[in-house]
Automatic annotation (TrEMBL):
<dbReference type="InterPro" id="IPR013815">
    <property type="entry name" value="ATP_grasp_subdomain_1"/>
</dbReference>
<dbReference type="InterPro" id="IPR011127">
    <property type="entry name" value="Dala_Dala_lig_N"/>
</dbReference>
<dbReference type="Pfam" id="PF07478">
    <property type="entry name" value="Dala_Dala_lig_C"/>
</dbReference>
<keyword id="KW-0961">Cell wall biogenesis/degradation</keyword>
<protein>
    <recommendedName>
        <fullName>D-alanine--D-alanine ligase</fullName>
        <ecNumber>6.3.2.4</ecNumber>
    </recommendedName>
</protein>
<keyword id="KW-0067">ATP-binding</keyword>
<dbReference type="InterPro" id="IPR016185">
    <property type="entry name" value="PreATP-grasp_dom_sf"/>
</dbReference>
<keyword id="KW-0436">Ligase</keyword>
<dbReference type="InterPro" id="IPR011761">
    <property type="entry name" value="ATP-grasp"/>
</dbReference>
<dbReference type="Pfam" id="PF01820">
    <property type="entry name" value="Dala_Dala_lig_N"/>
</dbReference>
<comment type="similarity">
    <text>Belongs to the D-alanine--D-alanine ligase family.</text>
</comment>
<feature type="domain" description="ATP-grasp">
    <location>
        <begin position="223"/>
        <end position="429"/>
    </location>
</feature>
<keyword id="KW-0547">Nucleotide-binding</keyword>
<dbReference type="InterPro" id="IPR011095">
    <property type="entry name" value="Dala_Dala_lig_C"/>
</dbReference>
<keyword id="KW-0133">Cell shape</keyword>
<dbReference type="InterPro" id="IPR000291">
    <property type="entry name" value="D-Ala_lig_Van_CS"/>
</dbReference>
<keyword id="KW-0573">Peptidoglycan synthesis</keyword>
């Protein structure tokens, strides 16, 4: 099957999407699928990307091309209103522009790795349905619910009895109301402290925390989530100007360009620099920069004290939902925002939540009920809190979870025996099954599903003929173990997606070579966060919740791997040579006296 992997897009999360697209390209099962990279730019153009550009560090490293970047790092929107000829010239440098009516001729299925408005709200999904192309993830309805945090709270309240203090403020009401009076209204409704959220953003973009009884803090937080940035003369005089306007253009720390300034659209950082400088030459009033993609309302939630978690729900081949083991987010930060999520080492992830078995089971029951009631389908990650009293509070369903190799959803699917490659196959297969529910193109999708299921079954049979490669890593110190584990995960993923090899992870520990211990690891161990997490469970212990979940998910595991989840096994060198030829051993930055396969 030819799989169009759509990544990028016009939303603020485009760089996260780009990383997810690379994950899909690298880890998709090459025996089943032919991946075709389709970059969607900020203007909504679909571009079959030149293969070598897929592995760029950032979108702005290749698009718009360097010749258009100048002194600033910009997205294509900052070039302003381009002529069709100029736009085509830019696109031709990076790939082939295609139109939606060409999709069905280019690929059999679209894997959506895009996030945010227009990408996971039903927009791209509706376009693909119109042209009869099956796509990954929930249906139109599930997608539209999954992007709207305000609607989600109301619907989750109906589904599972959400007991959480929330309110919302429209931009019109915010601008017309006295700030002090409005702040008092909000405190009376949700209490203090509280969290302000942009309701249509993901990746923790547009999140602000108000913890002090301060009107100024309140106004600043709300404007931040409306993507309104005020600049005072004092601030302008205290910053390096070129660096400041560049930050405004960055989507992870600024509001993004273009912006409206005094009713005029400003596209480029250089233009913004001139406009702000000119303003302060004649005025001391603040400059208000308003994103061209600002929110019309903000969601406000009372601060919840408790253990933060994220829990995925997927489906077995018969479309019955199964809640995965929940992950606890242990953050040494006040707000788990974009920086904490993607650019900080201040967070740890624990599976399952460090609470009672009953509380973990309640989390699974509630997210499963919400998944079924809101008609999500395929996969949804639902976040929430477990309070000190054991109460479960849900929020923020995410219908297209982040797709880096170490993303939460992959860690949770690994606990039922699926690696990243298996998980991507699941997303494609189950999405085709989900598309059949719409009553459109049913026969075509059924044929596609039958063909893919047969190919998956053949792939499982062929694994016995694959060359087994022992991926040996670890060491005799914590530092050595951690360093090799980081590299081993990359090797493991690359081998898992190959057409020739089957990775067999082997962890080495002990005092030294004379007192070494070798452990054959199951799939889920390769998705632990740190090597020390592997060491902690080498005794073979399994949390009862994970054991329960594996039983519930057995149909899924068997369908995509052909076997139940393995357990850790202590082995000898002799055993190692029996399971993998000496010519097929790969040591990862670790000294072991055996022939090496590279």
């Amino acid at each position: 099957m030819k799989i169009g992997i759509f990544f990028g897009g016009p939303a603020r999360e485009r760089e996260i999407s780009f990383a997810g697209g690379k994950t899909a390209m690298e880890n998709i099962d090459k025996t089943l699928f032919e991946p075709i990279p389709v970059f969607v730019d900020g203007l909504g153009n679909f571009i079959v990307l030149k293969p070598e550009l897929v592995y760029s560090a950032s979108i702005r490293d290749f698009y718009p091309p360097k010749s258009y970047q100048g002194d600033y790092s910009i997205y294509v929107e900052s070039l302003g209103e381009l002529s069709e000829g100029e736009l085509n010239k830019i696109i031709t440098e990076v790939g082939e522009r295609i139109s939606p009516e060409q999709f069905s001729k280019k690929f059999d299925f679209v894997f959506i790795a895009m996030h945010g408005p227009a990408c996971e709200d039903g927009s791209i999904q509706g376009l693909l349905e119109w042209y009869g192309v099956p796509y990954s993830g929930p249906s139109l309805m599930g997608s539209s619910i999954g992007i709207d945090k305000i609607a989600q709270n109301d619907l989750i309240r109906l589904a599972v009895g959400l007991d959480k203090k929330t309110t919302s403020i429209s931009r019109e009401y915010f601008e017309s109301k006295d700030a002090t009076e409005l702040f008092e209204e909000v405190k009376a409704s949700v209490g203090l402290p509280f969290v302000v959220k942009a309701p249509h953003q993901g990746s923790s973009i547009g999140v602000a925390f108000v913890k002090k009884d301060s009107v100024d803090d309140f106004v600043k937080a709300v404007k931040q989530c409306f993507f309104i940035r005020e600049v005072s003369l004092e601030e302008w005089n205290s910053v390096e100007h070129q660096e400041f306007v560049q930050r405004m253009a960055n989507l992870d720390e600024g509001i993004g360009l273009p912006v409206s300034m005094n009713g005029e659209v400003v596209y480029h950082p250089a233009e913004l620099l001139i406009k702000i400088t000119s303003h302060f030459e004649t005025s001391q009033e603040n400059v208000a920069l308003i994103s061209m993609n600002s929110e019309d309302a903000v969601l406000i939630e009372g601060f919840v004290k408790g253990q933060e978690f994220s829990c995925g729900v997927i489906q077995n081949p018969d479309c019955e939902s199964v809640a995965l083991p929940p992950t606890e987010i242990v953050a040494n930060v006040e707000v788990f925002d974009f920086k904490a999520k993607y650019q900080s080492s201040a967070t740890r992830k624990k599976i399952p939540i460090r609470t009672s078995l009953e509380n973990n089971q309640q989390v699974q029951a509630d997210v499963k009920k919400a998944f079924d009631s809101l008609k999500f389908g395929v996969c949804t990650r639902i976040d929430g809190f477990v309070t000190p009293e054991g109460k479960v509070l849900l929020h923020d369903p995410n219908t297209i979870p982040g797709m880096s190799p170490t993303s939460i959803i992959f860690k949770q699917m690994a606990e039922i025996g699926l690696n990243v490659t298996d998980s991507i196959t699941y997303f494609i297969r189950q999405s085709i099954r989900e598309r059949m529910r719409t009553g459109k193109n049913t026969f075509k999708f059924q044929q596609l599903l039958t063909k893919l299921d047969a190919a998956i079954a053949n792939r499982i049979e062929d694994l016995d003929d694959c060359q087994k490669v022992a991926v040996i890593f670890g060491g005799f110190s914590a530092e050595e173990q951690e360093e090799s584990f980081v590299k081993a995960r990359k090797v493991y993923s690359k081998l898992a997606a190959s057409t020739e090899f089957y990775p067999v992870p082997v962890f080495v520990t002990g005092e030294n070579h004379l007192n070494e211990e070798l452990y054959l690891l199951p799939t889920n161990f390769m998705f632990k966060e740190f090597a020390e997490d592997i060491v902690a469970v080498l005794d073979g212990s399994i949390h009862p919740l994970i054991a329960e979940t594996r039983i519930k998910a057995e149909k899924i595991t068997l369908h995509y791997t052909g076997k139940k989840v393995g357990t850790v096994e202590k082995i000898t060198r002799e055993k190692l040579t029996e399971m993998a030829d000496l010519s097929s051993i790969c040591t990862v930055d670790f000294s072991i006296d055996l022939p090496v396969y590279l």
